[in-house]
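re the bet — no i am not wrong, look at it urself. input seq straight from the record:
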Amino acid sequence: MKYMSICFINFFFLFIFSFLFIFMSVYFIMNDLIIFVEWEIIYFNSTVILMTLLFDWMSLIFMGFVMFISSVVILYSDYYMKGDLYMNRFIFLVLLFVISMIFLIISPNMVSILLGWDGLGLISYCLVIYYQNVKSYNAGMLTALSNRIGDVMLLLVITWMLNFGSWSYIFYLDFYKLNFDMLLIMFLILIASMTSSAQIPFSSWLPAAMAAPTPVSALVHSSTLVTAGVYLLIRFEICFNNNLNMVMLFISCMTMFMAGLGANFEYDLSKIIALSTLSQLGLMISILSLGYSDLAFFHLLMHALFKALLFMCAGVIIHCMNNNQDIRFMGGISYQMPLISSCLMISNFALCGMPFLAGFYSKDLILEIVSMNYLNFFAFILFYLSTGLTVCYSLRLFYCVVFGNFNLNTLYLLDENNNLMIFSMLLLLLLVIFGGSVFCWMIFCTPKLIILPFYLKMLIIFVSVVGGLIGYELSKMNIGICLFFFNFNFFTSFMGSMWFMPYIFTYGISFYSLFIGYKLIKIFDLGWSEYFGGQGMMYTFMFFSKVNQLLQFNNLKVFMMFFIFWFMFIFIILLFNM
């Protein structure tokens, strides 16, 4: 009861503040307001330390979404983390995580952004290793070290911005677009955002972070850590030139395609949803690279809603399945858990872009704008292939979990009797259903006119239907269409392991680094350098100390031996002189 009250109090305050910020963002949009708050903390020897805050419609609505999702996740955690001895610590870590994200959202200063970024990285490590086993430790270290690369890039940005005289980037975006210093800063910002948003080649930490509790995954994958990089790119979008945009478009399209393809060969429920997050992050960054920052931000908000609901549904299913996450052992839960199945179905359809759900208003607009733009054929094909793959793995997941035969053992407990858990999921469900249209009308005040030929207009529906049919066939076969390929095991392992990326960029780097270190230790520290160095000198000194000790005994035999040696030495000298 004590833990429930803690969860409920946090839920209540975060829920109230979330709606307050969302209503404030509506007011800011209607009146085109931006409030810039600057607080001088200390002035010492002509050095000014300032705390700056930026409140505009984008920061306010994003803070509202982060607080709303964190409030329902905390309420949901009361059910999911029931029986945990350290519930207070868990809630405290989640609140610190949210505060770090809010600090990053409202900061127009690179130093305070680094503080929020570091807070996200450090607390995400604490949350990923929460269960304290070997898998959690490995995943936490991989997550932390991947995000530390982004920290280094932001530190380099802070150092390079000394050339401008201030760390508040908002002052310089319009004036230094073509400056070399600003282009270098943009490149560093791009690398930092790629690490946080898990773009190629930093993608391996995102599925590994599933070792965290499911409420943490719902928070991380919807509105906090992975979206921090996208939000940073949106803020700096005005300064990206064509070359950086093309690099960003290529990387994000390849990430989107790779994640969508890998999710069709994955059997872990949480990892399938994690790879779908990776695919949607690639979609956000790709449309951002085409110059549509508002649309990327809108899809970020809509994705946060249905992805949080998707993870919460997955958490309940895993909880009821005796902590089993393999979708091959699930099936038929629609009979025992109809409400959870409905929430899973609606969030899955929103992910696919089903008309009039939250994902439709952003994904359909993105694809139609891509079709209308001047875009190379390679990126165009990857956009539509990734859309078809999204429908494919979503339908495969939905069929394997909700329909079909129940494949687990007979000892199970499928129920949905917790009212707080149901209430938290229904709150998200309302926004998943109605939030797309409401926020679309609010953010895009002027309707977008998109004129396309009939075959391009129908291409989205065609790709979605074909992807759904392939996903249905995959769910029945439980094997891939790669049966037509010669080396089946190689193909499935290649696709299921994100194109061997963990082996190349994670295990490969760590293994060969440790192997070279072992060889260096064996050759140098335990080899010739040790023989001629520390150990050799020690044995030499020990030998001479033993000889000296022998001389200190004043033995008559020693004196007689020395007398003979001196006599022989004098005799040899005299012999040579003659």
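see?? The mean pLDDT is 82. told u. also Strands lie at 35-44, 47-55. so pay up
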